[in-house]
Amino acid sequence: MKWYFAPLLAVTLIAASIQTALPVNSTTTAYTAKIATLLPKEARNNGKLGVVVKSLTSGETIYEHNAQSLFIPASNEKIITSVAALSLLKRDYRFRTEFYSGGGISKGVLHGGLYVKGYGDPTFGEPHLGFIVYQLKKRGINEIKDGITVDDTYFSKARRAEGWKQEWDNDFYSPPISALSFNYNTIEVKVTGAKSGQRPYVSILPDGSNITIINNAVTSSKKGGVLTTDWRSDQIIVVSGRVRPKASVLLKIPVQNPTILTGNMLKSALEEAGIKVSGPVIEGDVPRWATLFYTHYSDPLSTVITEYLKNSVNIIGENLIKTLAAEFRGVPGSWENGSSVISEFLNNIGIKDGFRVVDGSGLSLLNRVSPKTLTEVLSYAYTNRIIATDFIDSLPIAGVDGTLKKRFRESDVQGRVMAKTGYLNNVRALSGYIFTKQGDVLVFSILDNGLGWKTKEFQSSLLSELVGCCGVGAAGSSTVN
Fold this sequence. Notes:
Blueprint: H1 5-16, H2 29-38, E1 49-55, E2 61-65, H3 77-88, E3 96-101, E4 105-106, E5 109-110, E6 114-118, H4 126-138, E7 143-144, E8 148-151, E9 186-192, E10 201-205, E11 212-215, E12 218-219, E13 228-233, E14 236-240, E15 242-243, E16 248-254, H5 258-272, E17 276-277, E18 281-283, E19 291-297, H6 301-311, H7 314-329, H8 335-348, E20 355-356, E21 368-369, H9 371-383, H10 388-394, E22 417-424, E23 427-435, E24 441-449, H11 453-466
Parallel strand pairs: 5-7, 6-8, 7-17, 8-18, 11-14, 12-15
Antiparallel strand pairs: 1-2, 1-24, 3-6, 3-19, 4-5, 9-10, 9-16, 13-14, 20-21, 22-23, 23-24
């Protein structure tokens, strides 16, 4: 099965190609001209499309078009964030969540309240609650007095980055950012139709949140109409619109206050396990006299990066950039300081311009990067033995998994391209590596701002062509159409 080929090839060539290059034929003029014919006519005389293709085994540039022009990269920004995070925080870095007692534990009672301090774990969620409850019960705790205080001061209070559209506030892919997160800071509202003319059944998943629903929706057999959600406050959500009888609709939406949600989900889990909690969930700082009695750790960064890149999880990127800020510029971690850390990192590896970093996921419309810069970052990651395997294995594989699972199936590209996708309105991006049939490794970046569907067509044509590139004689044997 050829789709096993790419990861194995990646690991092998990382070790071998740095020492033994398979040279690109020095006469590349004809091949470059052939690639140029693939460029959409609509992009030949303007700045809508930028392309760079380079051989990592020979160092030769195979093709470039608007190589140094700046583009909105969308989720190709995640390449920069990942490489910086793996390089600076290291692969074994783990996000932590700390649990404190405000007044000590005596005869099964935790006095003075339970304090929970977050340090930016973007992966914290339902699967972890059971183990945390177990840790408290193991310490003999059966009652918590004075409630739960949640502390998210490791990050700045800004919930959304500069350049995020306000209209995205209710979209699950752009949740508010907090040092305490739960289930990627999203909930699901399940709406099930009743009899025509009646209110549908509405519930929130997961159970145990602090959120109340006002149900203004109606069951109707009429065609048209959609279900909508609107936050009246950070704890009240209004569901409106129509749903057909017996139909079931699941709406995934971001919460307004992820810090309080995290505390309430923990409180619900504790009470369900028989630990009585007296008092509310509130926001506040951990006092200096509180006693740390348990620390929960995330999976290592290398594992988190895989989820981040394979499935393009935006919240991970935002927590990473704020964590970089907190770790290297001081608490609280902010987007501005995180941008400074990443920019300094790029400067230190020899990339002095061709970028503007605003957020960690690529959602911001103020991010800018050139195709040349992205290929330089990818080249650095490939040749850096410390991060190469973790980074490359985290990229989606064409026709196999992640955001490229449904693309390039049953083609020569399947299993031979490992790359990051990027998509926003008027933005299409794809950057990564090609493992050619001739044994070469190519790095490429294709960035489009405004070309539309023709970019996807061009991506397919270009990658299909490049898969046959660039061992000895490959370039010289190509002809211009």
